[in-house]
Amino acid sequence: MSNPPQAFFINRPPAKETNIAWKEPPPPNNPVVRGLPLHYGAIAISNLNFVQNILWSNAGFSSLRDREELKRFEPRYDPTVVKTNGPSSTNISSAELLKGLLEEDWTSKKPQDKAFPSTLDYYEAYKSGSVTPTDVAKVLLPLLQRDGKDTREHAVAFLQVREDLVLEAAEESTRRWKEGRPLSPLDGVPVAVKDEVDLTGYKKCYGSNLDFTRSDDVTSHCVKMWQDAGALVMGKTVMHELGCDITGNNPTKGTPLNPNNTNYYCGGSSSGSAYSVAAGLMPLTEGNDGGGSIRIPANYCGLYGLKTTHGRVSEAPTTGLARSTGVAGPIAANMVDLEIGYRIMSQPTPLDNDPPIVIPPGQVNLQSNRNKVLGIYKPWFDLADEDVKAACNKAIDYLTSKLGYEKVDITIPMVHEGQLAHAMTILSELCQGVKASDTHKLSAPNKVLLSVARKTTSVDFLQAQRLRNLIIQHLSDLYTKHPSLIILTPTTPSAGWRIEPGDLPHGLTNANKQLRNMTYAWLANFSGCPSISVPVGYAEDPEGKVPIGLMGMGEWCGEDELLAFGYDCERFVGEVLEGGRVRPGGRWVDVLGRAREGKV
Question: What confidence score (pLDDT) does residue 28 get?
Answer without folding.
Answer: 81
